[in-house]
Amino acid sequence: MMKRLLFGVGGIVAVLIAFILIRAFNYGGQAPGIQVIELSPPPAIDIDRAAYNLGEAIRYQTVTVARGDPRPGQEGPWLELQAWMKTTYPDFHRVATRETVPGGLTLLYTWAGTDKDMAPLLLMAHQDVVPVNIGTESDWDAPPFAGEIKDGYVYGRGALDDKGSMVGLFEALNALALDGFRPRRTILLMLGHDEEVSGSGAAAGVDLLASRQIVPEMVLDEGFMAVNPSPLTGKPMAFIGVAEKGYLSLNLTVKAAGGHSSTPPRDSATVRIARALVALDDNQMPSNLSEPPVSTLFRAAAPDLPFLTRLALANQWLFGGLVESSISSGPAGNALIRTTTAPTMLTGSAKENVLAQRATAIVNFRIHPNDTEEDVLDHARRLTNNIEGLEITVANSGIRGAGASPVSPLDNLAYGVLSSVAHELTDGAPVVPGLVLGATDSRYANALTDNVYRFMPALMEAEDLRGFHGTNERLTVENVGRLARGYAQIILAMDSAD
Ligand SMILES: [Zn+2]
Question: Which of 265, 300, 302, 395 could, after both became Cys, cross-link 249 (CB 3.0–4.6 A)?
């Protein structure tokens, strides 16, 4: 009897192990429906010339610091950069029309296609750059606004974000025009003027396109690229941004009588604000690994993941808790799988021996595509509803569209083209759909179509990425070439397929 029971248990365990292993072996690979595209070779592009041109674009100090920049009278660098575009890329300017989007300095180019039935391609980049922190200029290996080429790099603010993309797009478009290419599908190029502060230019540009009933086949903006090594696998991998997180700040306020700190009450306004912050920190928004973009990201990355990781991911019914705690143990992984909670500003009384009559905090949330603004507000209110007198209001950050973007589909022409180009760029490394943690101008374009993607056809190493918004922002000359050729391949592939 006992023997038979043991055999029975052993049998069940063996079946279970087999089940777990089979799931692990079958886990991963691209989502079904991804269209692999035969790529055409790009037109001839002079890479050294392109790098030199990027250096020139960097010299125009199109710096935005605050919402509303450039202020009236400060438009000079933008207007000079725009004049430079015309003289540097005459062939593209011959075939395309250019208009300034009303209300700012955002540009919209239209290269009319021959087939009016084909939905247009919308390419995006931005003209503005973040400032260089005062006092850090001398930390740079080359001055931040000189556009010097040194040791194979183009140095300067905007090299990565986002003049590298802008110049890469111009190089591709100009080379195609010079080559005699005539697009079937209309090509639109939108260059925002204030992405780093609000993206009001892109918002207005998208409104203009909407008023013309334009529904692009694909919108392509900055956001991700191919990297080597990927933080997920330690090997090359290309990320294509299929969504970006939203942005919401909440004001927390407690009012009280105040008074002298020699006779304080318990649970003062300041303490209640502190309790609210601890409650929010202790109880993070829930994670969700079972829906795109996170589920599709891990599936696509799986072939290069260690077997045990794949086994755990494939069997989340058993190892879900382990997977969740391992991913959320670092800030980047945590930001990938949930809405993050960041208390950033605090006020109390203005004097050390005076009790606060008003204590406040601002908590900045980056909303995951699996949550809404309402979810965040409900979560914050529910966790703090036992704190007397606490008021929660939405801070007016002046940002439109606080929620996360929708998640763009993978089973369409746009994703097929981008993953084909990324695949070639990386010599066959996995291409995975990613979640952009910051905000890009393309978030507005979801008003036009679901097919919004964030990808630069460049291959970067950890060292190359360090300069984003920081010291020694630079782009390799090789990557300038990859961008120019990659954009040309994307344009050609989008044009040759229906
Ligand atoms: Zn940018």
Answer: 395
